[in-house]
Structures
1.
Amino acid sequence: MIRLLLAEDQALVRGALAALLNLEPDIEVVAEAGDGAAAWEAVKRVQPDLIMTDIEMPGMTGIDLAMRVRDSGMSTRVVIVTTFGRAGYLRRAMDAGVRGYLLKDAPAGQLAEALRQVHRGGRAIDPQLAVAAWSDEDPLTERERQVLRLAGEGLSTAEIGERLHLSQGTVRNYLSEAIGKLDSSNRIEAYRRARQNGWL
């Protein structure tokens, strides 16, 4: 039996996925979570075989959750099921140790089979996304990504510096680098372009 934790912030989608997957003879949804922080607490509590998570969730993204699981040394494997069919997201997910990446419009049978494949130690990646991921290089460093994400959330240079323990000059340098790499005229345009490409 595959013990599955389901992390999805949309209650209706989460309920439908749980009902669908519980129909499978070898899959049991042992916990559900509506945000990333609750998912992490549930992972520690129930130690599931697999986590099936969305990317964008309140508190902690699915990619952040995958990094925590990877860094904890747990044997739990992570599968992302999302509407975000962008190569940048897939690359970041793979770097975080994610073993499966599927789109929400995938057929139900394909989803269950992907979970089985990952449980057996394999990978399950949407093939079209896989091709695009290796031809669409993410230009940002991790620190540039952090600074740009906070700038896009409306934080000032001083607030970003305080949050990341950086001087305001260093924050400005990171923002300038990111704006230049993304061929943008300001931080908001750079943030928007990075989001569109799945780099944030």
Note: Residues 168-181 form the longest helix (14 residues).
2.
Amino acid sequence: MFKWQGAAGVCINKKKEILMVLQAAPEEEKKWTVPSGTLEDGETFEQCCVREFSEETGLTVCILEKVHVKSGNISEHGISYHVEYFLVEIVSGEIMIQDPDEFIHEIAWKSLEEIAELPLAYPEDIHILEQLLKD
């Protein structure tokens, strides 16, 4: 079984909106998610989160805290996964698509109500986002 590991960053602004990215590989349907990606060799989950956030949004962030861990198996594809989610804060930069893989199509601040209506890459993440907005 292939083991995939990654990290995701959740950034919440003063209006209680979450920074989301619209992503898809060339043949895929475009779906929304928080900035996230694959752990590279020698990288910590925190370093992965900061790097992926920058690559996907143009923003430099710092980690505030780990807020969730999601692990499981997608048996039909022979994949096990482990993703660590971090609450992040913007340190610098401007929102700009600069994804080297060219999978990011749009970046936008979204309210929880808007997110609930969007096609999500990982629909189960709505519960993580709801919990963070309540805190």
Note: The domain at 2-134 is CATH 3.90.79.10 (Nucleoside Triphosphate Pyrophosphohydrolase).
3.
Amino acid sequence: MRTHTPARVLVVDDDPTVSEVVACYLDRAGFTVDLAADGPAALERAAAVRPDLVVLDLMLPGMDGLEVCRRLRDDGPVPVIMLTARGDEEDRILGLEVGADDYVTKPFSPRELVLRVASVLRRDRARALAPPAAPPLRAVGLTLDPAGRRATRGGGELALTVREFDLLAYLMRHPGRACGREELMREVWGWEFGDLSTVTVHVRRLRAKVEEDPARPRLIRTVWGVGYRFGADAAPAADGAGHA
């Protein structure tokens, strides 16, 4: 991400009123803003000038936001905040499945959206500037390699989104400890506010990929009224330091 110029945000929405209001608030906050009214225009603009972050409406004419997100990610990693007029869990899951970093339901506060944009960009910058990653972690057939950002289970590579990987890494680094949803949102997403159901949905999707039986999770357990715990009987060990 650029460090000496304002972060560039691409806003993709077919509603000109929404686009103009969001662009105005982002501009006031010091961001460089590009606008696109549909999927093809967004992909064309992103190919011409790569954005640092994309604010992307889910319901676009012709090519929906999910397909736009997939195609953007095919050209390289870029943070994405999804916008939608629909707030049901199915849509949230679809957005998270393609790797959206945040999910905002219309109507929304433009000021809150600006804060979320800044938060996602800070997290993205911190990841890029992070010191060399720790050795791989292992737990009951599960291996996490922070340096290569690869996760495997039983020898097979897991297709994890950026946030799913970060969430799993945080939980594995704190085995046996109950991690609250607010803590996870702060440490994994870098948010001091937001919809805690985002954490819940990510955990559900992560369980589907790492648990033998997601309905009876052994690795990522629910601590009722608090959050989640990486199973104490599945505590990870650093590579070369023993086996769990």
Note: The first helix runs from residue 16 to 28.
4.
Amino acid sequence: MPMREFEAYPLTPDRWDDFVTLFGPSGACYGCWCTYFRLPRAERDLLDAGEKKDHIRKRIEAGPPPGIIGYVEGQPAAWVQVGPRSDVPQWNSPRTVSRPLEPEDAGDDGVWGVSCFFIGRRHRGKGNSHRILAAAVDFARASGARLIEGCPIENAKTSQSLGLYVGSAAVFKAAGFVEVALRKAGRPLMRLSLAPEGVLA
């Protein structure tokens, strides 16, 4: 079967309706609307799904794009949250497995993170995680990032596993990421250098 056409673009305000279509009435994961790593838990727990949706809408409107939205045959199919670590402060918490190797990386705009994935149900298990991660890496490189990191999960039971919102380690490995830390079994911190050839990151 020929591969369905896949295209990916930075999530700008004009693509808001496509983002809403992809996330659906449940807001992706139980009404999260990709706020999990953006807001402290105490603050996030006070918000209902509609308020979380409004929070991410305002973030998208403020720019720069907080991630990449992917399309299969013109229909919204995939999302990845990618940007400087400073844009997702809860991803840097000292209590998380995704915390930076060096504390200063949390505020370094050259150190980016791939913190969340969401693949539409009809589009899972078809290679779209690989495609949207490749688009995220290209976006980070074009935006001047030196390093891009992820903290995926290993050994997810199926492509439908809820834990895959952080991505699959196999997908990161296939994209050239290497493990740089392991704070919890099955959750490696992985990194890809985006420095030009011959230049140390």
Note: The chain has one domain: 6-193.
